[in-house]
Amino acid sequence: MLKPIHIRVIGSILILIIIILIDYNLVSEITLAIFYMIPIIIFSYQNTLPFFYSLIFSFICGFSWSYVDYLTHPYSEEIYRIVNGITRIGVSLLAAKAVNQYFVEKLLRKIIYDQKEQLEIANAELNASQVELNKFIGMAAHDIRNPVGSIKMIAEMYLTKEGVSEEARKWIQMVETAANNSLQILNDTLNISKIQSGTIDLNKTKSDYIKFINDSIVANQYLAINKNQKIVFESDLSAVEVNFDGSRLSQVFNNLLTNAIKYSNTDTTITVKVNYLDNKKDQILTSVIDQGLGIDEKYHATLFVPFTTTANKPTSNESSTGLGLAIVKRIVELHKGTISFTSEKGKGSNFFFTIPIA
User: Fold this and answer.
1) 322, 327, 328, 329 alpha-carbon torsion, rounded to 10°
2) Per-residue pLDDT in tens (0 to 9) along the chain, 358 residues
3) Integer Cα distance of 224 and 233 in angstroms
4) Which of 15, 304, 339, 348 has its CA 20 to 30 A from that of 87?
């Protein structure tokens, strides 16, 4: 059974033969040119046939055209016959190339369009699945958080009781530490699932940003005191009204400050700086600078990616989930701000973020 490509090739050859036979009765050069292009166009439709064959066929068409023209209109000089043959063969080859190029590009455009459409459909399905997965993770983390919170509360209650032996107290403290670490993981997972599913909202109010930072430092002082660290606050501003979500921005600042405490050794200083970003005075720049372990350059590019951790270990075995900075970055971006850092291994880090005042 003949395939479409075979029908196309045979049909092209038959059309060429028919044109050669009727060429003797055609006088118009334009009509001749059109007639000889028809089999070339049909033959050169490139989807499965190698282009080399199209060139061979177009050469035959051009040669036949010039030969029949010579038979019907004998030239007195041989040079005219050669020029006539070269011209017609060249025109035929160019026609084959142009037709082939057109159909190849058309086919490629169709393939690209189809692939793009399939990718868009697959991407939409993937996004929908990701949203559902994030919602499920969020629900699971929320449901697990309550019993873990109960374990933490019971452990704390037993630690305050009198008559608990030192051995039992040691085990209860281990339970409390594990519960605290689990709660941090669950809270971070809940936050990242909300952020990635797009269900997190900001509740902005205008507040004194300097007071907010001072209060946040006080809330974290006990962590620094336990490691004999000093937190220094520097600012040229006594007060500045900023429109922000206090609860969410607490997550940002507390994460950066507790990271500075975690990854710094004892007897070191952590400096917090707050000032205007520039002379426009439309953005506030907050910096948390430590004298800690620093971050190896190979981790710089992926530090804000969820679940990314470095080789650094907290200096007092504090817990780390690899989610904190990803959450921080998204919250800052939701405030229309930016966050970045500079760090050198063994020489500490400077994490800084900006938020617009209005």
Assistant:
1) 100
2) 666 666 667 777 777 777 766 666 666 666 667 777 777 777 776 666 677 777 777 777 777 777 777 777 666 566 666 777 777 777 777 777 777 777 767 777 788 888 888 888 888 888 777 667 666 666 666 667 677 777 878 887 877 787 778 888 888 878 877 777 677 666 666 666 666 666 567 788 999 999 999 998 988 888 888 889 999 999 998 999 999 988 889 888 988 998 899 888 888 999 999 999 999 989 999 999 998 888 888 888 888 877 666 656 665 555 555 567 888 888 899 899 999 999 988 888 999 999 999 8
3) 14
4) 15
Residues 61, 332: Cα–Cα separation, whole Å: 70
SS3 74: coil
DSSP readout, 202-266?
A: ---EEEEHHHHHHHHHHHHHHHHHHTT-EEEEEES-S--EEEE-HHHHHHHHHHHHHHHHHTS-T
**Longest Cα pair distance anywhere in the chain, in angstroms?**
129
3-state secondary structure at position 146: helix
Which amino acid is present at 355?
I
SS3 279: coil
Question: What's the DSSP call for residue 344?
Answer: -
Give residues with Cβ within 8 angstroms of 224, minimum separation 6: 230, 231, 261, 270
Two structure tokens written together for 278: 């520039």
DSSP secondary-structure letter at 276? E
On whether the CB atoms of residues 346 and 354 are closer than 8 A, the answer is: no
CB 81 within 8 A of CB 122: no
Supply φ then ψ for residue 98, to 5 degrees. -65, -45
Return the structure tokens found at 157.
């209650």
pTM tops 0.70: no
- Residues 156 and 146: their CA atoms lie apart, in Å, by 15
What's the chain's Rg over C-alpha atoms? 39
The amino acid sitting at 129 is: S
Q: Report how far Cα 161 is from the mean position of its chain's Cα atoms.
A: 53
Q: How far is CA 142 from the centre of its chain?
A: 28
